[in-house]
Amino acid sequence: MCNLYKMSKSADEVARFFSDIAQDMRVSPGGNAPEMIYPGYPGMVLAENTVQPMVWGFPLQRKGAKGQPLKPKPVNNARTDKLGSSFWKPSFEARRCLIPVSAFAEAEGPTGGKTRTWFSPAEAELFAIAGFWRETAEWGRGYTMLMTQANATVRGVHDRMPVILAPDNWQTYLTGEPRDAYALCVPYAGTMRKDATDEPWAGRR
Length: 205
Prior knowledge:
This protein has about 200 residues and is mostly beta strands. The chain has one domain: hypothetical protein yedk fold, CATH 3.90.1680.10. Helices cover about 15% and strands about 45% of the residues. The chain has helices at about 10-15, 90-95, 150-155, 170-175, 180-185, and strands at about 5, 25, 35, 40-45, 50-55, 60-65, 70-75, 75-80, 95-100, 105-110, 115-120, 125-135, 140-150, 160, 165, 190-200. The radius of gyration is 17 Å and the shape is globular. The two termini are about 20 Å apart.
């Protein structure tokens, strides 16, 4: 599952990237976000015809060993085979979004020595991952990524990968019937770039 991605473009550059599907697109104030995005961090998304910051993850309430409330956990990935659950279904059906990404990372290597391996479509400086969002009492608007079975490039590192959408499918995913959006949630079929690094997986945030 994806727990780290990077997005190296500004909000205005993201708006231009998505301009083919929304000529009157807006960029909300303060729309830029950190380049390295972890669960619970703000990231940019395209939702409601606006490039806007949201928190990566839906809050999951937790309790400690003695029943005391703990800080909510950001649930930042939604598996396609779990979209029928009450936790995900209302948001997927009513509030889908596109997540602009430069590359996503998976942990590779032995326990205690895992490093970051980055993936992206070949030659792409920016691409769109399928997601959806909702209002939260804890963080304002939060979003999550959709995960499907890994393709051949990612499979050697992880058995799942984010749903990468081709530009021709953006509008259908955002505004089509839920069944049509769901049909697009398949492993990426194009050529991908894999960049294995020596960066520690648990690096500085």
